[in-house]
Amino acid sequence: EVQLVESGGGLVQPGASLKLSCVASGFTFSDYWMSWVRQTPGKTMEWIGDIKYDGSYTNYAPSLKNRFTISRDNAKSTLFLQMSNVRSEDTATYHCTRLYYGGYSYFDYWGQGVMVTVSS
Amino acid sequence: DIVLTQSPATLSVTPGESVSLSCRASQGINTNIHWYQQKSNESPRLLIKYASQSISGIPSRFSGSGSGTDFTLSINRVESEDFSVYYCQQSNSLPRTFGGGTKLELK
C-alpha cells in the first residue's frame, strides 16, 4: 500500500524558513517523480513543483520558485520542501504527492498533508 | 497559465440522482485533464485520468468525457459516500493548474 506521510509543519513567523518532509513507503521511491501541492484554507489547490526520480531535475510554479526548493533523499525514501521567507499567503496544508510522469502527468497518490500557518 | 473553471460551485442532490460536473479550460488541452475527489478531512483521490480513463478501484458509476476545452465528470446514481468536493487538474502544460472545485452536497 502506497503511503506518504508529511511532517514539519506548524506555526512560523513571516520571513522565517521551514522545511517539510514526506516519508514514502509501499513503492520504489527512487523510480518516481514526486511533487508538492498545497491547499489554502479556502480550499484552493496550488501546484508547487516536481522533482525527477533521481533528483536531477525540478519544475516549479513561477510564483514560488525563488523561495521554495524541492529535494529528495532516495536512500531514505524522503521528499523535502524547503520554504524560505514565508508570507501569510503561504498558510496552507501542504500535500506530498506521487507524480505519474508519462508526458502529461497526474498525481496518483496523495499524503494526508501537513498544515503550515504563517503568522506573527 | 491555463485556467480551469468548474461549475457549479455547489450541487445539491439526493442519493440516486445522476449528476454532471463541468470543467472548462481557458485554452485547448486535448484530453490532458484529471479528476480528483476529496472527502471531508481526507486527502484527494484520483478518480479519472486523461478525461475518460478509469482508475483501478474507483466505482464504475464515475465516468469522464470531453476533449479540448470542455470536460465533464458524471456520477451515475449518486451514493451517500460520494458527497465530497471534486477537482479537475490539467497536465497539458506547466504550471499544473487545478479548478476551484465543485462541492457535491446532500439536498
Give a verbal description of the structure.
- The complex is a heterodimer of chains A (120) and B (107).
- Helices cover 0% and strands 53% of the residues of chain A.
- By secondary structure, chain A is an all-beta fold.
- In chain A, strands 2, 4, 5, 6, 9, 10 and 11 form a seven-stranded mixed beta sheet that branches.
- Chain B contains no helices and eleven strands.
- Chain B has strands at residues 4-7, 10-13, 19-25, 33-38, 45-49, 53-54, 62-67, 70-75, 85-90, 97-98, 102-106.
- In chain B, a hairpin with a 6-residue loop joins strand 9 (85-90) and strand 10.
- Chain B is globular.
- The A-B interface holds A 35, 43-47, 59, 61-62, 95, 100, 104-113 and B 32, 34, 36, 42-46, 49-50, 85, 87, 89, 91-92, 94-98, 100-101.
Could you write a compact summary of the structure shown?
The complex is a heterodimer of chains A (120) and B (107). With 120 residues, chain A is mostly beta strands.
Which structural class should the secondary elements of chain B be placed in? mainly beta
DSSP strand tally of chain B: 11
Low-confidence stretches of chain A: none
The main sheet of chain B comes to: 7 strands, mixed
- Helix amount of chain B, in percent? under 10%
Instruction: List the total number of helices of chain B.
Output: 0
Rounded to an integer in angstroms, the radius of gyration calculated over CA atoms of chain A is 13 Å
Percentage beta strand of chain B: over 45%
Q: Span between N and C termini of chain B? A: 35 Å
Mean pLDDT value of chain B: 97
Which stretches of chain B are poorly predicted, pLDDT < 50 over at least 5 residues? Answer: none
Contiguous helical run count of chain A: 0
Question: Distance N terminus to C terminus of chain A?
Answer: 39 Å
* Mean pLDDT over the residues of chain A: 97
> In angstroms, what is the radius of gyration of chain B?
13 Å
Strand tally of chain A is 11
Oligomer: heterodimer
The general outline of chain B is: globular
